[in-house]
Specification:
Blueprint lengths: L18 H42 L2 H5 L3 H12 L8 H15 L8 H7 L16 H10 L11 H10 L3 H14 L3 H9 L2 H4 L7 H4 L2 H10 L17 H10 L1 H8 L3 E12 L2 E11 L4 E5 L7
Antiparallel strand pairs: 1-2, 2-3
Length: about 300
Amino acid sequence: MVDINKHRLVKSHDVKLDSEYVQWIYEIKERFRNAQIKAAVKINSEQLLFNWQLGRDLVIRKAEEKWGSGIVEQVSLDLQAEFPDVKGFSTSNLWYMKKWYLFYTEILYEPKLQQLVGEIMQPGHSKLQQIGMPLHEEKLQQAVREMPFPISFSYVPWGHHILIITKCKTLEEALFYIKRTIDENLSRKALDDYIRADLYHVSGTAVTNFPDKLPVIQGKLAQELLKGNYDLGFVSLPTGYDEVALENAIEQRMTRFLLELGEGWAFVGRQKEIVVSGKTRKIDLLFYHIYLRCYVVLELKVKSF
């Protein structure tokens, strides 16, 4: 609902506001907000494309071999002198651009990873049509030189890219976190938490009976959402604590606990009473999962279960 009384009224002319006008103004505002978002994405995309191309130039021109070991610092000084009001031309940032480009192009030397490269490149790229076949050195070098900027990278901020290439060991791991960032609109802090929790390796590793008890699609999604281990290091408890103490501690730090669980979890309550086979039972912690569209019961145990 839009409150018509909140609108500022023009006093110098005769104006009559009705519901149709209010709806029209609302649509205009929404269009402008969407335009702002698209503009921000476009700016980010152009900046990332520039970073990608500069990193590529430093690689394919063999800048350090041609102009000396201090050439990156020199490029930094020249760009800062020409564009004093622009941030991002520090020496360290230029090194990250080179490292960023190398991270995704050096894997072309691994034939088994060529298919993954093809998936993140623009459709129709001819250099990797023969998936799984080793590239000859000359064609390999040409592929590296011509590797286009992956469009999906545009939706990930530069700081996130730096975090990914400095903490991920493999292409598969990096692409996993890029997809997570895009799908869940992760902040850099949330992305860092995911990487620290090693979500790539532990996601979907929980022991379950989902394949036997759930429909195939829902079972796969449920399995993907659960980790084999959860880090509760943010909970401080004395030696010999019981389940009630653990439950209290988790409730007091529920925001942090939800971050550890991952995307899509909503806390419903604790000690929710239900009746099963005529007997009263209480659920330790009850959640609802937005993607699964179902309630999830969490039963706490402090001893082996």
